[in-house]
Design a protein that fits this description.
Strand content: 25-35%
Helix content: 10-25%
Structural class: alpha+beta
Distance between the termini: 48 Å
Largest sheet: 4 strands, antiparallel
Order of helices and strands: EEEEEEHEHE
Number of strands: 8
Shape: elongated
Number of helices: 2
């Protein structure tokens, strides 16, 4: 058991030879040496690159209304669209491709520079992040 006493952590009980090492925050660290680290291969510097934000795809329905979606999956003739319950009332929606005006959907997205792809064979699944 380890207990905080004043500005130091003190081991109160437990095996002395457990091999566990306690690393304290700098303001409480009484030792001037930095904590030991296990040897390993040197790590390469990683740079986080933000993915470019994709424009939402426009879905044009046969009845003429339009909807936008940024995240969808198409499989077996069905478009599964992820939603936000708080803004549009559902977490997921299932839209039959037969209810879309596919040619107008493709044209609308091409004019905006958005790639809207349909499966080219029955077992293909299209995923747009």
């Amino acid at each position: 058991m380890i207990e905080l006493r004043g500005d130091r952590y003190v081991q109160m009980s437990g095996p002395e030879s457990s091999g566990a090492e306690m690393i304290l925050p700098e303001k409480f660290d009484p030792a001037p040496n930095p904590p030991r680290r296990s040897p390993g291969p040197p790590r390469a510097a990683t740079h986080t690159v933000a993915a470019p934000k994709l424009l939402p795809a426009i879905l044009v329905f046969r009845d003429g209304h339009r909807e936008e979606t940024s995240d969808y999956t198409i499989a077996d003739g069905v478009l599964y669209m992820r939603g936000d319950y708080y803004t549009n009332g559902s977490w997921n929606r299932k839209i039959e491709l037969s209810s879309l005006d596919v040619s107008e959907t493709i044209k609308s997205n091409q004019s905006r520079g958005v790639r809207f792809q349909l499966p080219s064979f029955p077992n293909e699944v299209i995923v747009r992040p």
